[in-house]
Structure formats: structure tokens, C-alpha cells
Design goal:
Elements (H helix, E strand, L loop, with lengths): L6 H19 L2 H31 L3 H7 L3 H7 L4 H38 L6 E4 L6 E4 L5 E5 H5 L3 H16 L2 H14 L4 H23 L2 H15 L8 E2 L5 H9 L8 H45 L30
Helix pairs in contact: 1-2, 1-9, 1-12, 2-5, 2-8, 2-9, 2-12, 4-12, 5-8, 7-9, 7-10, 8-9, 9-10, 10-11
Length: 341
């Protein structure tokens, strides 16, 4: 446990540094799936490691040890974690759990607001055109989702660019990109080291929609022109619950659209999968070591009660073989002349 419990922290730090630049060079759809998987696994590994480290300190509280029926002295003799590390882990875990709760409430409100806006939009078709001179274009997740475009945005684009813009927003809805956004926001709230992964994930989602729009329209230059003109027209307007064609780093998206489609690469995905497997295996090993440590501490307490019972057999109403906590008092075979209970 001494080493394996810290490996999820190292894996998380490595992914936070390496994943964003690598994801920008991969095809966006597999990159988004890989980033979502990495965020979920490393967030769970982060929380699990903190919980194991925190438990090594909490388990040594006499009241907790009494409820769990294990020996505090035996646990301290086996525990390789410093008390200050356990205390800091407890505090960090508590802060992260509270942050996750706040983020979950906020994300739930965003999605409810999006569904409410969908219900309030005019018409019943996928596309809702607002009679507004302010340039707007975004996709609202719902059941089903809606694409919202203002007349001000439509007037600034030609026919091919309008088709590209709508294809981009349809890709957001078809790919359920709001689910990916929710995953990254919640995991980043639980594990602050994953914030760069969340930022890279949002960019990859826009690239995903760009590539699907380019396939739909058949002209990457038209999509690049539509993205650039829509971004300039909207002047940075954004909605927390919406997915917009003007999101992400627009100059990078335009450069990617003017270049050939990204080549498929399996090596970065395999390397990332190996890191996640190491994270899971190390956490499982640390949990197993912690369980064995507790079993040993419980057995030490049972042996201590067995010695007390053997020295004073009448102290427990003539019921040999059980300590005051009701635990087993001796091993499976007699040792050193003790009675086999």
C-alpha cells in the first residue's frame, strides 16, 4: 500500500499534462471518448486513494477501532502512512466531495434550464429560428434537443455556410455532447488536476462537430469559413447549457479544417489505456493491502482477548473462548498449551 496508493495521483498528473496536446492531434471522436474514459477512471482513482489514506488515520481513532473491533496499537505498528498525510487526505477528500456536490447541482440546473428553453421555443421542429438581430447559434440538449439560430446570424452567412452551421449543431445533438461536458465538469470538480482535460475535451467536441459538418457539406473550406464568420458575428456570446459553433479556440479549429483530416493513431490510445490499467491495478492492490492490514489488526485484538480470557476464565460469566467484544479468541489450532476453543 505504501507505494501503490500514490500511483493514481501520478497517473492523473501525467494525463493532465500529456492528454490535452495528444488529444488535439487525434481524430476528435475517439479523442473525446478517450478523454471521457480517462477522466472517469482517474477521478475514481484519485478519490479512492484519498479515501484509503484518510481511512488509515480515521481507523486509529479509539471509538472507530472499538466499533470495528481491531487493535489500534497493531494498526499503528503496520500502518506506513504518516498521521499528517492521513489528516491532509481527509481534508482534501472532504473538500473534493463538497465541490462535486456543488458542481452536480449546478450542472443539473443547466440541463433543466436547457430543457425548459427547449419547451418554450416556438414551433415543434428541430430548428427554431429566433426573430432577433443579435447573431446567435447553439444547440440545446433535451428530449429531443433543439437547434436555435437567430435571423441576425442567418443574414451574416451565405447558403453553404448556413448548411455547415446547422450540420455542426446537429452533430452536437446527435453525439450527445452535453453528456461528455457533464462528465468532464463533474470529474474536474472532484479532481482539480483534471481541469486541463476538461478544457481539452470541450475543444475536441467542437472539432468533432466540425469534422462531421465537413463530411456532411463535403467542403472543409466552407465549414472553416462558417465557423470563423459565426465566431466574429457572435462576439463571444455563450450559454452554459448550450453547445455553440463559436465555442472552443476558433483559430485552431479553422486551421484544422483548412488542413487534411487528422490521421488515425492507435499508439497514444494504447498508451493511455495502459496508464489507466496501471491506475486501476494499483488502487486495487492498495485496497487489498488495507483490507489485510485491518484483518491483522482484528486478529491481534482477538489474540489479546484470548490471553485475557485464559488468564482469568471466570471474568466473563464462565464463557471461555470469547473476549468482551465477542471476537474469536484463538487461532484454528492450539499454540503454546492454550486451550482450543
Amino acid at each position: 500500500m505504501l507505494i501503490s496508493v500514490y500511483i493514481p495521483f501520478l497517473v492523473t498528473a501525467a494525463l493532465a499534462v500529456l492528454a490535452p496536446p495528444v488529444a488535439h492531434r487525434l481524430p476528435p471522436r475517439p479523442a473525446a471518448l478517450a478523454l471521457a474514459c480517462a477522466a472517469l477512471v482517474t477521478a475514481a482513482g484519485w478519490a479512492g486513494s484519498l479515501a484509503l489514506l484518510a481511512f488509515t488515520g480515521v481507523a486509529q481513532i479509539p471509538q472507530i477501532a472499538e466499533e470495528g473491533r481491531w487493535s489500534v496499537s497493531a494498526l499503528r505498528s503496520q500502518d506506513p502512512v504518516y498521521a499528517v498525510v492521513a489528516a491532509v487526505s481527509t481534508l482534501v477528500l472532504a473538500v473534493c466531495v463538497v465541490s462535486l456536490g456543488v458542481a452536480a447541482v449546478r450542472q443539473g440546473r443547466h440541463l433543466l434550464r436547457a430543457r425548459r428553453e427547449c419547451a418554450e421555443l416556438p414551433g415543434h421542429t428541430e430548428l427554431a429560428v429566433l426573430d432577433d438581430d443579435v447573431p446567435l447559434a447553439f444547440a440545446l440538449p433535451g428530449a429531443p434537443g433543439r437547434i436555435v439560430v437567430s435571423r441576425g446570424m442567418l443574414r451574416r452567412l451565405d447558403g453553404a455556410e448556413r448548411e455547415a452551421l446547422l450540420a455542426h449543431e446537429r452533430a452536437h445533438l446527435r453525439g450527445r455532447h452535453h453528456v461528455f461536458q457533464s462528465v468532464w465538469r463533474l470529474t474536474a470538480a472532484l479532481n482539480p488536476l483534471l481541469r486541463p482535460v476538461a478544457v481539452a475535451g470541450n475543444f475536441v467536441l467542437e472539432r468533432w462537430a466540425d469534422e462531421e459538418a465537413a463530411e456532411r457539406v463535403g467542403d472543409r473550406t466552407v465549414v472553416a469559413r462558417a465557423v470563423g464568420r459565426a465566431a466574429l458575428a457572435s462576439a463571444g456570446a455563450s450559454r452554459p447549457a448550450a453547445l455553440a459553433a463559436t465555442g472552443g479556440v476558433v483559430p485552431q479549429r479553422v486551421r484544422a479544417l483548412l488542413a487534411p483530416p487528422p490521421a488515425r493513431r492507435s499508439l497514444p490510445l494504447l498508451a493511455g489505456g495502459l496508464l489507466l490499467a496501471v491506475c486501476c491495478a494499483s488502487l486495487a492492490n492498495a485496497a487489498s493491502d488495507s483490507d489485510r492490514m485491518l484483518d491483522s489488526a482484528q486478529w491481534a485484538l482477538c489474540r489479546a482477548h484470548a490471553g485475557t480470557t485464559t488468564a482469568a476464565p471466570t471474568a466473563h460469566d464462565g464463557a471461555p473462548g470469547h473476549g468482551p467484544d465477542g471476537c474469536c479468541a484463538a487461532p484454528d489450532r492450539p499454540e503454546h498449551g492454550e486451550r482450543h476453543f
